[in-house]
Amino acid sequence: MISGVLLDLAGVIYDGDVAVPGATEAVLRLRDAGLPIRFVSNTTRSTKSAVLDRLARLGLSVTADEVFTPAEAARQWLAEHGRSPHLLVHPNLVQEFDDLRSGLPKAVVVGDAGEAFDYRTLNTAFRELIAGAELLALAPNRTFKDADGKLSLDAGAFVIGLEFASQKSAIVLGKPSQAFFRSALATMSCADAQAVMVGDDAETDVAGALAAGLAHALLVRTGKYREGDEKRFEPAPTATVRDISEAVDWVIDASKR
Amino acid sequence: MISGVLLDLAGVIYDGDVAVPGATEAVLRLRDAGLPIRFVSNTTRSTKSAVLDRLARLGLSVTADEVFTPAEAARQWLAEHGRSPHLLVHPNLVQEFDDLRSGLPKAVVVGDAGEAFDYRTLNTAFRELIAGAELLALAPNRTFKDADGKLSLDAGAFVIGLEFASQKSAIVLGKPSQAFFRSALATMSCADAQAVMVGDDAETDVAGALAAGLAHALLVRTGKYREGDEKRFEPAPTATVRDISEAVDWVIDASKR
Questions:
Q1: Most CB contacts within 10 A, which of A12, A113, B171, B227?
Q2: 3-state secondary structure (DSSP) of residue A187
Q3: d(Cα A137, Cα A115) in Å, to the nearest integer?
């Protein structure tokens, strides 16, 4: 029995600005089958509205409520805890934090800052941490598939470096945080036991979802997937499939059981 | 019984270009007591000859054989293993690797590159690692005392970030590598049980030396020392002392027992 589907975006639905072949049709098949969907992304180089625009350009009509981003979770954390952000994020993402209060005790917010990661920005963040700031990690991913098709360093390397130097533990706000998966499932009243996650990151999407308590997690061989990824992390995927189309076949089949 | 003394340099003998008060006289007292000394530094922002020049300016006559640096250990490793270096080090240190063979399989060499750490250089190193290069860490320190007197990010944060993303373990060539401490002790025919290390880094110098098997390790309250450091890492220091002068008092006293 499946009553809710979580889909990763980059590497599952699109690669850069191009749809993964069959992705749009696969999502529509889930809709037709009456299965509620939420999109859970660890992308921290785009605002949520840019993500929605990109999906619209691919022919997918998705509402803001259906997309969960780490930046949104961080905004909520900062508001709940009365903290002002010290941002170490991609320039594209800065505006997501524009309207938050300044002047409160700080929390360092680390996303995939890309070229904005340099010694000075990292050392400034480190000094905030040892002066008392909390460390919020929007995403702890090891790698992402870059514009040239090769793997590049994702935010995780910088988060773990800051943790090591400051001897503080990061609070993770995107996948594989259990709270992140749970908040997406809660909006479709889907129990863990009836949920499935589909992603291209064997660690953060797949092992992460299973460790967070979801019953099923499918690994697609698109995006950042590399041969053997399905054996690289525990728990292993429920199934490893060609792409989102084959994942949707699996989900629709399982939802009828 | 003490028959050999290992001294850290930055934070113990000098702070920047200035001697720690009493340091020169303290080293001379060890010499007068007939105790052999080796200087073991994790500094990777200066060549060995620059280190020797600095000591000479402080009035300490030290030979090249008495100073052990991670860069020298890395040169030896590269030669023994038939590897060419891919350098991610401080511009000052590049010349230490100038005469090594190129064209061999690569090893990524990470030092305290300072401003040379940026997204591009780190990602290039990461891609060498996933293409098969080994990872050599000149020093895994968390922090160092910067020119402004505050703590700054040391190479350790970047080493652990690259390890995390590439899923490779670094080979450490400076402190706290047991081989590094041992190679310095061997040149003065000093057994572990009769050796003492003096340093300002409670983790790399002190806990590191004890974990490597040295009988004694003294923590000085100069350099990067921060209140409570003596309780922060295991094994705890044999003793925590004001500075190098008090450390030398301890060593001379112990050498007579």
A1: A12
A2: coil
A3: 17
Partner-chain contact A153 B120, CB within 8 Å: no
CB atoms near residue A219 (< 10 Å): 25
ipTM of the complex: 0.92
> Which residues of chain B neighbour A154 with C-beta distances below 8 Å?
165
- Closest partner residue to A160 (CB to CB) among B123, B161, B167 is B161
Contact assessment for residue B230 and residue B220, using Cβ atoms and an 8 Å cutoff: no
Measure the CA–CA gap between A96 and A138, rounded to whole angstroms. Answer: 13
Residue B82: both structure tokens together: 């038939």
Q: Where are the domains of chain A?
A: 4-69+177-256, 70-172
CATH code of domain B4-69+177-256: 3.40.50.1000
State which H helix or E strand residue B152 sits in.
Answer: strand B151-153
Percentage of the residues of chain B whose pLDDT score is greater than 70: 100
State whether A151 and B130 contact (CB < 8 Å): yes
Q: Which residue has the tokens 């340091």?
A: B23
Question: Quick one: pLDDT at residue B16?
Answer: 84
CB within 8 Å of B218: residues ≥ 6 apart: B196, B197, B198, B199, B206, B237, B238, B239, B240, B241, B247, B250, B251
Residue A16 banded pLDDT, cuts 50, 70, 90: confident
Question: Domain A70-172 has what CATH class?
Answer: alpha beta
Token pair for A152: 């590049």
Residues of A in contact with B120 (CB under 8 A): 115
